[in-house]
Design a protein that fits this description.
This protein folds into 2 domains: about 160 residues, P-loop containing nucleotide triphosphate hydrolases (Rossmann fold), CATH 3.40.50.300; about 70 residues, no CATH class. About 35% of the residues lie in helices and about 25% in strands. Strands 6-7-8-3-9-10 form a 6-stranded mixed sheet, with helices on both faces. Strands 2-1-4-5 form a 4-stranded antiparallel sheet, covered by helices on one side. Helix 3 runs parallel beside helix 6. The N and C termini lie far apart (about 40 Å). The relative contact order is 0.18.
Length: about 240
């Protein structure tokens, strides 16, 4: 097991966003977190990556407690985070954005890591000297994922990677996520497109108002009438 979250509680002031959630991510797997807006999915990723400090509970990564580790140390531990909304540096070039993903390494950025990102996203090679802010939405999402990969993460946290993208680009993004996973990176995925997420994932967890209400292997959740009705827009026959 690569990541274990136990009884995690997180609050924004007096409002409790996570109410004792627990879940596991096996090494080499893809795990999907599903739920409506406000269910606590983004809060979960932000807490795992150290951007939020839990009120209670534990987060263990590769056998090490990390719930008190500051966010700037997470990349060095092997955790990469692609936030919702991409958050690239719009006035930096594509290549400079990628170099920022390897900032913790110091001055030397391995050419092999840049080449790996360009192999996954050939369009970024073509746009290497172009400012990130001038890219299309799909290209910016590719850049955000590529920047996270520059840290050579063992665990990649992806928050709504398909949001706002055209269907053809969404299909390509999911193909690339599968390819990244096949190359050895474990993925924890928050995704509004529940059908695509469950087709890609090995296991899924459903969150409602800060609590895990369902968990199972992805194929079982995909076939579950409650999940289909609530998240896939399909009622029972």
């Amino acid at each position: 097991m690569l990541l274990q979250v136990e009884n995690l509680r997180v609050a924004y002031g007096a409002i409790e966003a996570l109410r004792g959630i627990s879940f596991e991510v096996d090494e080499g797997s893809i795990v999907a977190l599903l739920g409506a807006n406000g269910a606590g999915k983004t809060t979960t990723l932000r807490t795992v990556s150290g951007l939020l400090r839990p009120r209670a509970g534990t987060i263990t990564f590769d056998g090490q407690r990390i719930d008190a580790v500051p966010p700037h140390q997470m990349v060095g531990l092997g955790i990469g985070h692609v936030p919702e909304g991409r958050r690239i540096f719009p006035r930096m070039s594509v290549l400079e954005n990628l170099h920022m993903g390897a900032y913790y390494r110091g001055r030397r950025v391995p050419d092999a890591d840049v080449a790996r990102v360009y192999d996954l996203f050939p369009v970024l090679r073509e746009r290497s000297g172009q400012d990130g802010g001038t890219l299309s939405g799909g290209e910016q999402q590719m850049l955000a994922i590529g920047r996270a990969l520059m840290g050579s993460p063992r665990l990649l946290l992806l928050d709504e990677p398909s949001m706002g993208l055209a269907p053809m680009i969404v299909t390509r993004i999911f193909e690339i996520i599968r390819e990244i996973n096949e190359q050895g990176t474990t993925v924890l995925l928050v995704e509004q497109n529940a059908s695509q997420a469950l087709k890609l994932a090995n296991r899924g967890y459903v969150l409602e108002t800060g609590e895990v209400v369902m968990s199972d292997d992805a194929a079982t959740l995909l076939a579950d009438e409650r999940v289909r009705a609530a998240y896939l827009g399909e009622g029972a026959a």
